Amino acid sequence: GQNIDQPTEMTATEGAIVQINCTYQTSGFNGLFWYQQHAGEAPTFLSYNVLDGLEEKGRFSSFLSRSKGYSYLLLKELQMKDSASYLCAVMDSNYQLIWGAGTKLIIKP
Amino acid sequence: GAVVSQHPSRVICKSGTSVKIECRSLDFQATTMFWYRQFPKKSLMLMATSNEGSKATYEQGVEKDKFLINHASLTLSTLTVTSAHPEDSSFYICSAPQGEHQPQHFGDGTRLSIL
Predict the structure, then answer these.
(1) For a disulfide at A61, which of A25, A56, A81, B16, Cβ 3.0-4.6 Å?
(2) Partner residue opposite B101 with nearest CB, options A31, A44, A102
């Protein structure tokens, strides 16, 4: 079956750095997405990786290793507004998105 | 700005009522749109894939007669929850990819509460 694993919850301190990991097993691979979802709101797109390596976008970076079925989202200089759930999603061979359950990130002052 | 518009944002209605939710792509055409459901503190659950000009594809366990999907144009898909009951209360979200193999952009979601 298809599977996306990410930690349920993480806690970090304002101003610090946090890395949210995602491992996947899917039938085919056509890219990996990270989304941010604040409580009660719809997800918003953060990043897309289809080739191995690091994609940097401001305070957020996303890494992919296709051979290991592994990605991480790195958040730097954490701000209180970064408290949210972070969803990892993989596009399989049928171009369907397979969603992880999300990682709830709690930022403490 | 928003690339996908979803309305209404909140609906409160009596049991037995049918509720229609609209999802529009702004400034781009979407031959495919997706409808999700999300319970509190749970992950997104794909309900169905809406296909312009053809029948929607429903995920296993989703009643097609209960959740009617119409993708009448390249910019509009609608989800109608028919004869809604309290157990249908949930957060419904639509999304559309801006192009082939592109990220999905989400509407703001519709919070449905059935009394």
Answers:
(1) A56
(2) A31
State residue A52 phi and psi, 5-degree precision.
-60, 145
**A50 to chain B: closest CA residue:** B101
Q: Is A53 left (phi over 0), alpha (psi -120 to 50) or beta?
A: left
Mean pLDDT across A36-42: 92
A41 touches chain B (CB under 8 A): yes
Task: Calculate how close chain A gets to B12, using CA atoms only, in Å.
Answer: 16
Task: Round to whole Å and give the CA distance between B53 and B66.
Answer: 20
Residues of B with a Cβ under 8 Å from any A Cβ are 6, 34, 42-44, 46, 91, 93, 100-101, 103-109, 111
CB-CB: which of A30, A33, A42 is closest to B93? A42
* Mean pLDDT of the region B55-76: 94
Helix or strand or coil: residue A5? strand
pLDDT greater than 90 at residue B53: no
pLDDT of residue B99: 78
The answer to whether A34 and A62 have CB atoms below 8 angstroms apart is yes
The Cα B59–Cα B66 span in angstroms is 13
- Under 8 Å between Cβ of B38 and B96: no
Asked if A42 and B108 come within 8 Å (Cβ–Cβ), the reply is: yes
What is the H or E stretch that residue A34 is in?
A: strand A32-37
pLDDT for A93 equals 85
